[in-house]
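Contributing: when you submit paired examples, paste them exactly as shown. First protein:
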Amino acid sequence: MTEKPYNQVHPAAQFFIFIGIFLMILFAGNLIGLGIVRAVYGLNTVMDIAALKMNSPHLINALWIIQIAGTTFPIFAAPVFFSYVIVRDPDDYIKPSFRLHWTLFALVFLVMVFSNPVIEVLSNINQKMHLPSFLSGVQKWMEDSEKSAQKITEVMLQMKTIWDMIIDVLLIGLLTAIVEEFMFRGVLQTIFVRWTRNHHVAIWITAILFSAFHIEFFGFLPRLMLGVLFGYFVAWSGSIWPAIWAHFLNNGAAVVATYLFQHKIIKANPDDQHLFNAAGYIISLLIMLFLLFIYRRKAYEKRQITEY
């Protein structure tokens, strides 16, 4: 009796297999990261991180070690291992093909530019959302968690020189975009497409998981919208790279804007969510939808030519 290939196993089983692999690598990665920090900087630095002591002398380097070993590496290793070793079908589960027209990348750039007002209005809506009174304890926990995460982010985004900015663009912009898209729009979206047999449902489920994964309740809606955009970029083109490009543009622009604001080159605070008015929201939404329509048509034309 021959063994059934894992890519023919029910998608629900594939999902739980993948989650199990990811959690194991995540656990190992965090242990390795903490071990490196302890070996290099000592136990006191580990304790400072746990206590969020922002004046710790080695805090920034230690946070980056834990981030890369405990989060970035697992998010990359799990989908690569699952695609190449478990299901042995990276072309379908990661979609690394470059067989797409360059105009799609230009369209993605424009979509991301005109999505900014829409993201802003979703952020404003999200900020005003509150849980019912009987869940006030949960609400406070979420607010405290986000404040702690914001402190850590601010520490990690301290950029004294332009080289610091370039490194952060590569790490936060490019590397994060690659690993998260491999995991979410690659493996997970593929699994949900097979599971639900509906691309739209799969894209929205994956986007919900993508947003929830970041554990930022007050940034859930804008990140959900980004996840949906990334999902359609992949579904229509058949390639992971338009989503990686879009993800990089979003993250990289945030890093550059933060650097410029820190050095008083620009006055607009990147965290300010009141840069546009109602007319800007409506116009940007209409333009974004039109660009998505053009992207979809161009992507399908290229796929039909390639398949032919």
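Second protein:
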Amino acid sequence: MIDANSEIIFHAYPQSPVAEKVRVTFGIKELAWRSVDIPRLPPKPMLTALTGGYRRTPVMQIGADIYCDSQCIIRELDRRYPAPSLMPTTEFGLMWCLSRWTDGPLFDQTVRHILGSAGDKLDKAFAEDRGRLYLGENWAEGLKEANANLPHLVAQARAPLSWLNAQMADGRTFLLGDQPGAIDAQIYHVVWFLRGRWSEGPPFLAEFASLVRWEDNVRALGHGTPREMTPEEAIDIARDVESIATTGVADHEPQGLEVGMHVTVEPDVNGGEQPVAGRVRFADAQTIGIERTTDEVGTVCVHFPRAGYRVTIA
């Protein structure tokens, strides 16, 4: 029988590029995991019951510990399953710094590229939801601007792809050498997004032969071994076990956080999203874990990265 405090439960939908980043991570580590399908658009009641309101994709659950944002998920997977490492060289600090670019400006630019290329063909409900999330309150004007500036956005994508193509030109298998790492998954999800969601993606990417070879190598890693699970089963697991997260606040905490303090956590952008409220259980330079209790899910610990998230003392 599998221990509920160790089984990986992944809440996502197949078309999500950020979920693809984590699925590749499962492939690198050859992990078995449970797949819970969630809606592409809100409301997502079964997911937000676990997270306390966080609605972005993906979310990872292990027992009563809920991990939001792929940077938090990837870090936790490497902690729990250290071999093979997602940081196969000693430059892991630089890799995490680079991930703030791949997951931030590069991904945001690609979202504008994809949404702009769709133009009037974009589903209205999807356009409103993702437009508000990534383009702000004036999302409708932002979509028009992205469509009008598509050649510029293509040029902006072409530059970093040429750099990556040059990185692979010496025949290496992955970006850092013979072993895949987190940075392969973090960059691959953007290329995957361009290829699959932009009608001109395949011919555009064909220019970068070495990068396409790398793309094939990453794809061949697979996604580990998934098995389906229902949202109800996932909630039952959360309610029936206890969080195993560490308790405490690390030294040099700049916001004066203390264990038990009431806080809210939300992405550090104006995406119109609901903050998640709870009590501090753990905090350090990279992660914050907050406890919240409801009748539906019991007591869970919801984990967020510190980078890219705003913690507000309630």
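If you have annotations for the second protein, write them as plain sentences, like these:
Residues 164 and 211 are 7 Å apart (CA to CA).
The chain has two domains: 9-84+225-313, 92-219.
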